[in-house]
Design brief:
By secondary structure, the protein is mainly alpha-helical. It contains 20 helices and 14 strands. It has a three-stranded antiparallel β-sheet with strand order 2-6-7, covered by helices on one side. The longest helix is centred in the first third of the chain and has 24 residues.
Amino acid sequence: MLELSAQDTLKRFARYWNSDFVQSSRMLIEQYKIKMAQMLLRHYKGSKKQTLEDFTKRVEKTTDRERIALQNIALYYFATHKDIDPQASGSIGEAEKAEMSALLDKALALLEGMSGSPRLALAEAVGQTIGVLTGTKKAAAKATGAITDTYERALSITAKDYQWALTPYPNPTAFIAPFDDAFMAKLAFIDGKLSFLESKAGEAEIKKAAKGRKMELVKDLDIQLLRSLFTAIYHNAQSIKGGNVTVYMPTFCKAMGVDLLLPGKEPAKDINGNEIPIKANDILGKVAQFRNCVGVTKDGSIYALLNFSKYDRENNTITFDSPYMNMIIEQLDESNKRTSSSGETYLNPRYSYLVHSSIGNEKNKAAIEIVHIILALLHQRGGMSDRQLKQINDVKKAKAKGTRIKAAAPASAEPADKTVTAHKKYSEIVHEIPILDERIGRDTANASNVQLKRAFKKAFELLRTKTDAYQYFIDLQIPEITPTITTLDSVLTIKHKGTRTAKEYKPKI
């Protein structure tokens, strides 16, 4: 009897092992290993001296999380092809295999643009590809209205007057200012807005402190992290209730570039092998740098930058609000309204979608800021050729003098020379980055030159690897010349031949 039972078990095992579902899953896993090794080589290019063979060895052993995600692709295929029995054997041909492989390729293409470790984000990429949320907590969080999406691009403010709104660079329109604990304790906020009347410090004292740029407070601020939070708020501005933002914790971590891995690049696990959940305190610690920060707007009003109010353990969500960032979004929308010749209202471009979210993982913060300044410069210059711009300026000058000039081709005509030139002094770029400006102001000439070289050299690299600048601007030419203390007053001159059309370049958001 036992012998018959064992034989029957072996037959059932063999039938299941040879089933189309299991064989399809195994095929996807083998394809994934090859393609993931190639992706890792691209992902870590320039940061690690490893070969394709090294990465192939690393992915030879897939994790349970990866295998489940790949099996979900096979499950999805069979669920959407009711005429094929997943328990049968031999009914999967080349066409069916190609269809499943295409689903894997689609998931990997999504994965390529995500921030963080590609292998850890596989489940999410597969979930987005097949339209199924992975993880019951994520589904529950989304049902409560929490932000569960991740964004491949971090917004960069390029509107001329507001480009420094998320930086500590004092200017007349908008900027952020960090205070120490003692000074922050003197301030009173009502609905997120500073009340000069209720505060223990006077208005003049507060405004002077906001423009003080204390380097010991500014140097540790992670401005790119702030841009990631701003991106989440911007994309969900219409659905945010009462100014509060609720974010699904893993999404929040991705946006902030929080490293949730142990040194061995594996998720932390308990003694039973289960992944240790993210602790709210870990996240709060990451953003604690902003607890004493405020935002100053053009009318002199001051708002709280970031307030955290609740952690929901059951749904793994965290709730915060940012009165300042909400106000900036409103002001940007209002200040960039324009009226066309036909009387229609439209918004001038005020953000750039060219910066990859993964730039937040870079340690050279000054280099990141240089990237944003250069992109703002290019966007503000626009795509009108130098020749067209000269024609317009000549007409304006002639009208001002009351003289006539020869008729020229209209600015809308296709110019013979499409060259667009943008330029800015290196000294101006440095001055707009408080941490870099302060360093070279106190260091020796040699030490300052080292700082300048590190910042600009890395910035030029990031423009190629962590932005779509070279894909969006046609024939973009940025001279990769690093300034020194003695050449700071020289000019960085950038040229291109215009921008790609919407059909040629579609930004990833």
